Amino acid sequence: MPDLKGKAAVITGSTSGIGKGIAERLAAQGVDIMLNGFGDRDEIAALEAKIKSDHGVRVGYSGADMSKPEEIRGLIKQAQDLFGSVDILVNNAGIQNVSPVDEFAEERWDAVIAINLSSAFHTIKAALPGMKEKGWGRIINVASAHGLTASPNKSAYVAAKHGVVGLTKAVALEVATQGITANAICPGWVLTDLVRAQIEARANESGRSFDEEKRVLVSEKTPTQDFSTPEQIGDLAVFLSSDAASQMTGAPYSIDGGWMAQ
Question: Which residues pair with 184 in a beta bridge?
């Protein structure tokens, strides 16, 4: 396994789902973790305590709103003050809104672009000077299969995730000789707690088993007819943070059960 002890990571949107999986996998490799996201404060405190206890790393938390640049800058500064540096930046925070483009609420468009795309610009801008000073850094942007293709009624999400892939490439070229990499992870369907609850509800309504309902949900897009997990995405983030991936930069990496192979 990669030696990442002594590194520090900021993971946006990491109090649940994909971000939580990434945080836990990085912590298992000795990385100090700055959590970020919304949720019940007691549950977040319990997550902080569990990561500390399980992995013996330092853990902080910021409730910074990823739609507000000043709070984003505060998040990066808080991590730098706590850990001394931000070595690994994972931009994972995201929201979704589904609507035909001609009916898409303008405020929802603005919110999706702000949180799914612009927040990555602001975190990268704030964290890069420190990475450049150290001559080492890893920027990992969680995009989506929808950063590489499109689906109807998801115009803002698709636009934002395509933007994330483009931003990743531009940043990678700018820092290519400075010991810093930038890559994008592009998941398809991911079995988060939220999606699991949705499948269970659908199964109760249809009378099908959980596994049957799961296959129905993913079969349209996913050749494997199965989900990726937050833990698998976390393992990919760990690899992209390692020295073994030092020559892997500016690329989108699909973890989508074959979706992009079609």
Answer: 141, 252
Residues 150 and 191: beta-carbon distance below 8 Å: no
What class is the 8-188+229-254 domain?
alpha beta
Tell me the C-alpha distance between 209 and 253, whole Å: 32
User: Which residues does residue 62 pair with via DSSP β-bridges, in sequence order?
Assistant: 36
- Any residues with CB less than 8 A from the CB of 236 and at least 6 apart, and which? 185, 253, 255
Rounded to whole angstroms, the Cα distance separating 136 from 175 reads 10
Residues 6+ apart with CB under 8 A from 146: 154, 157, 158, 161, 162
* Threshold 0.90, pTM exceeds: yes
| Tens digits of residue pLDDT in 188-215 | 999 998 788 889 988 999 999 999 999 9
Q: How many CA atoms lie within 13 A of 71 on its CB side?
A: 15
Nearest 5°: the CA angle 257, 34, 81 is 150
Rounded CA gap, 211 and 199, in Å? 9
> Among all residues, which ones are annotated catalytic?
157
